[in-house]
Amino acid sequence: MYGWLWRRLPGGPAARLAQLMLLIVLVGLLLWYVVYPWASLHLPFDQSGLG
Amino acid sequence: MRLCLRVSGELLSTLGVVVLGFLAYMYWGTAVRASAAQQVFARELASEWSGGSELAALTGPGDVSLGKPFALLRIPQLGSSWQFAVVQGTGLSQLALGPGHEPGTALPGQVGNFVVAGHRVTGGNPFWRLPSLHEGSLIIVETINASYEYKITGRPRSVPADDTAVTAPVPYHPGERARLSMITLITCDPAWSGTSRVVVTGVLLRALPRQQGS
To answer: pTM for this structure?
Structure first.
């Protein structure tokens, strides 16, 4: 999977590494600000109310 | 075959990182919003309480409104920086910002049971260390009226999530007539789960005049 991605990215090793980092940061931001907040409301974690 | 194994290995490790990230978000991410709200609450209370002659005392359920802070909770055993504003209501939207007072139960200092629920994880993790409280530790609740000192009367107890007897005017004895002022703090047990609750109960020792400027 990651090998396939590595071969698909254009440029030399340095450019590929930079792109990969950018991609990881973007995915991380998407998870932290969109996916996790949504999931925290819909998964049954710590529903501390009463009864 | 080897390709298949490698791809599934990569997928599973990625999934592991995503799940770890989610746990980190629950612990730290949700606390960001809660701590911002807590700062606003603390400022609101400070300005309300320094209102001079037009102080509105807290006497009945009509004096607190849903989602609004009305008390400061301190537990010296958890450190001097441990302080949360208590809001009215125990819905998820209230608990997301801090501990909440169960509507219909007593107000601080009143005869009956002042019941406060809070998240163990998320929303600033207010009750993360609730199970570590000792018998005899103090719980201090400050309102516009006074500073109330409660003493914890037993070890934290684990009860089923649907056990409402802990919120009765006399905790664990529903139907009995209250003579004492009690406090009950409730959170999830085990952490991250909603299967049961851990409960700490205390009794009012004394009410002190609120310290000015605190």
So the answer is: 0.83
